[in-house]
Amino acid sequence: MAPLIGMLFGALLGAVVAKRKGGNRLDMAQYAGGFAIIFGLIGLFVAIYLARAAVAA
User: Fold this and answer.
1) CA distances from 19 to 35, 37, 43 (A)
2) Cβ–Cβ under 8 Å, residues 4 and 48
3) Host domain of residue 9
4) 37, 4 in Cβ contact below 8 A?
5) Count of CB atoms within 10 A of residue 54's CB?
6) Cα–Cα distance between 42 and 32 in angstroms, integer?
7) Are 14 and 33 in contact (CB under 8 A)?
8) pLDDT at 57 over 80
9) Contacts with 31 (C-beta within 8 Å, 6 or more apart), sequence order
C-alpha cells in the first residue's frame, strides 16, 4: 500500500512542480512520472522496513 500511495503523491507533486516552473502538459507528465517512480521506491523501502520490523518483534 505504501508504494501506491507514494506513487500517487509523487505524481501529484511532480505535476505541481512542473506547473509552477511554467511547463506544458508533456513537462507535467514527465515530472509526474519521474516523481512517481522516486516516491514509489521510497514507499517500497518503507513497506519492506515495516514488514521486517513486524517480523522481528
Assistant:
1) 14, 19, 24
2) no
3) 2-56
4) no
5) 8
6) 15
7) yes
8) no
9) 14, 15, 17, 18, 23
Cα-atom radius of gyration of the chain, to the nearest Å? 14
User: What's the rounded Cα separation, in Å, for the pair 41 and 14?
Assistant: 15
CB 42 within 8 A of CB 18: no
Could you read off the pLDDT of 15-26 as tens digits, one per residue?
999 999 999 999
Reading the block at residue 10, the C-alpha cell is 509523487
Q: Using one digit for the tens of pLDDT, what is the confidence trace for 5-49?
A: 999 999 999 999 999 999 999 999 999 999 999 999 999 999 999
pTM of the model: 0.89
**How many domains does the chain contain in total?**
1
